[in-house]
């Protein structure tokens, strides 16, 4: 599977992604967004690991309920955590929108390149991990308005990337944002809980050495780890 990625990651990172600037932007964003989110959605988090000891790079995987999920996951770690900067995958239509796309890129957004194949979609995420930065993946691939989470909803990108790079996965679950609306947000009707699980290496959870044929098994393992946190 190594032949899937044949780019010079350090050169691409310098040209397209600036971790130092992003770390500064996310620190500033953390100071503004965390108190805002705490006020409007009363969000709190529980952790099954010592989040102060987490180190980058990590592949942070979570269920996907709303547009608030990236900023929620982007502020759930302590200020100045070594895990930052954290990049995240964003749908193509948002990234190609004038002004908005540029703004999202400054905040760490990477284009999904949906329909272009895994090589194109995972090129930038692999660069991120190879350069000791972290990335957020939503294995469901899209938002689900209800807190509906099924193993068969999982897509292979996160598993493929974890097995290709050997980087640890950190599962998380977001609860309390079903049927999200901005009206209910500003009326402070949500009570959101974020649960952080234990980091793990996907290859160690597989019964055998991985092949392209058991990427599906790896995807189900990731989905199952998220599902455990939702129960």
UniProtKB/TrEMBL annotation:
The keyword Hydrolase does not apply. One of its GO terms (molecular function) is 1-acylglycerol-3-phosphate O-acyltransferase activity. Keywords: Acyltransferase, Transferase. SMART domains: PlsC (SM00563). Residues 58-177 form the Phospholipid/glycerol acyltransferase domain. One of its GO terms (biological process) is phosphatidic acid biosynthetic process. The keyword Glycoprotein does not apply. It comes from the Bacteria. This is Phospholipid/glycerol acyltransferase domain-containing protein.
